[in-house]
Amino acid sequence: MAKLLLRGMVLPMSGAEDFYPQGEVAVDGDRIVSVGAKGSAPRGFEPDRLLDRSNDVIMPGLINTHTHAAMTLLRGYADDLPLMPWLEDKVWPFEAKLSDEDIYWGTMLALTEMIRSGTTTMSDMYASMDRVAEAVLSAGTRAALARGMIGSAANGLQALRENIELYRACHRAGEGRLRVMFGPHAPYTCPGDFLQRVKSEAESLGAGIHIHVAETEAEIETIRQEHGRTPVQWLNDLGLFDGPVLAAHCVHLTPADMEILAEKQVCVAHNPESNMKLNSGTAPVPELTRRGVVVSLGTDGASSNNNLDLFGEMRSAALQQKLRVDSSALPAYEVLEMATVKGARALGFEEVGMLAPGFKADLITVDFDQPHFYPRFSIPAHLVYAAHAGDVRDVMVNGRMIMEERRLLSLDEKKICAEAEKRAKGIARELL
Ligand SMILES: CSC[C@H]1O[C@@H](n2cnc3c(O)ncnc32)[C@H](O)[C@@H]1O
Ligand SMILES: [Zn+2]
C-alpha cells in the first residue's frame, strides 16, 4: 500500500476554525492517517511520494447528491422549458430511445466532467444502473446509485425488481465505493401503493430512498387535487419517511412540511441551477437548516443545468439565497459544508466528506496561484464565489489518484466525448 504526503493549504471541513495555511495530509493506502500543520505526520511515517502543492488548497472531494448522469447526452437538446413540458415533450421521448450502452457512455461523459470539476462522489437516479455502476467502478469514483422508477404496473414493478437486484449486486461493491438506494421518481409519477411497496423493499434491505419532492407549484397542485395535502404530508402519511430518505429539490414547502422533514430526518438535495433554469422556484435553504434538516447540493441532470460543476452550483446556491433573503444568508463555509460533509451524511457515506484521520482519502487540490484567488483574504469565500471547475488540479478517491496535474488517469476522455457525440446525435436524428 502506497504512502503519500500532500503539502499545501489544508481545508479539512471538520469545523469552521480548522485551516492549515501550511499544512499536510498523510495518506496510507485508501485512508487518511493525519491532517495538520506542516510536520504533523506521525513519527515513522515514511512516504513513498511527497506531493508539494504549497500554492494549492487541499480539501475534501465534492459530493453531488442529485443527478441523472447519463443525461449529459441531452445537454443542449431541450432548453428554455418548464418542468412538465420539458419532461413530457422532449426528455422522455429521447430517453425512451436510450440503450444500456448509451447510458454507459453518457455516464462516462458525466464522470469525466465531474472528475475535472472536483466531484468525487455522485448520487445518481436513472435506468440501466448496472452499466452506471460499471462506469463508476472504472472511473474510480464513489456513488450512491438508485434505479429510477416510474409508475406502478408493469414498468414500475420491473424497475423495482432491477433496483433490488442492483442492491444485491452492487451495495458496498468496489471497496465500498458504491452504495445503493431506491429511486421512486416522484409523488406525481408513482401511486401511493407503489411507493409503499418500494418503502417496504427498501426497509427490508436497510436501504435509503432517493426521490424528487415538491419541485414545482404544478406538483403541489396535482398532489393537492389527488390527495388533499402537500407532497411532503402525503409521503409522510404513506410512511415513506420512516427510513432514510434523500428528497431532491424541496422548493415549495410549508412551515409544517419543514417540521416534518426535520422530525423525520429527511435529507434534502438542493439543486439551485436546475430550479432556476426550469423556473421551478427557490428552495428555503436557511429555513430548513435552521430547523436542523441536512441540506446537501446537487446539479440535477445536464439537461436542466446544463453542467455538472459543483463549484458553479455552490456559487449559485449562495447568491440565490442572498437575493431571496439578505446578503448574510448562506455564507461560504456553510455552502462548502453542503457540498462536502453534508453530502456524505445525506448519502450514508460515513467515512468521506472531510479530511480527518481514519477517513477515506477522497480529496482534491485546487490551484490557488491564479489571479482570481488574490489577495487571499478568505479561502472559503474564494472557493465559493471565485473558483471554477478548471481550477481543480488533482483528484484522489479512496487513496488512488484519478486526475493528476489535470491529466485524467482512469478515463479515455477523447473516446468518451466521441462516443457521446455520436450516440446523442443518432438519437436526435431518429426523433426528427
Ligand atoms: C426514472 S429515472 C429519473 C428520471 O428523472 C427525470 N428527471 C430529470 N430531471 C428531473 C427533474 O428536475 N424533475 C423530475 N424528473 C427529472 C429524468 O429525465 C428521468 O426520466
Ligand atoms: Zn432530478
From TrEMBL:
Needed cofactors: Zn(2+)
Family in the record: Belongs to the metallo-dependent hydrolases superfamily. MTA/SAH deaminase family.
Residue ranges constituting the Amidohydrolase-related domain according to the UniProt record: 57-401
Role according to the record: Catalyzes the deamination of 5-methylthioadenosine and S-adenosyl-L-homocysteine into 5-methylthioinosine and S-inosyl-L-homocysteine, respectively. Is also able to deaminate adenosine.
Reaction equations catalysed: S-methyl-5'-thioadenosine + H2O + H(+) = S-methyl-5'-thioinosine + NH4(+); S-adenosyl-L-homocysteine + H2O + H(+) = S-inosyl-L-homocysteine + NH4(+)
One Pfam entry name: Amidohydro_1
Binding site for substrate: E95, R147, H185, E215, D300
Cofactor comment text: Binds 1 zinc ion per subunit.
Binding, Zn(2+): H66, H68, H212, D300
Organism: Acididesulfobacillus acetoxydans
This protein's name: 5-methylthioadenosine/S-adenosylhomocysteine deaminase
Keyword terms of this UniProt record: Hydrolase, Metal-binding, Zinc
Presence of the UniProt keyword Zinc in the record: yes
GO molecular function, a single term: S-adenosylhomocysteine deaminase activity
Taxonomic lineage: Bacteria, Bacillati, Bacillota, Clostridia, Eubacteriales
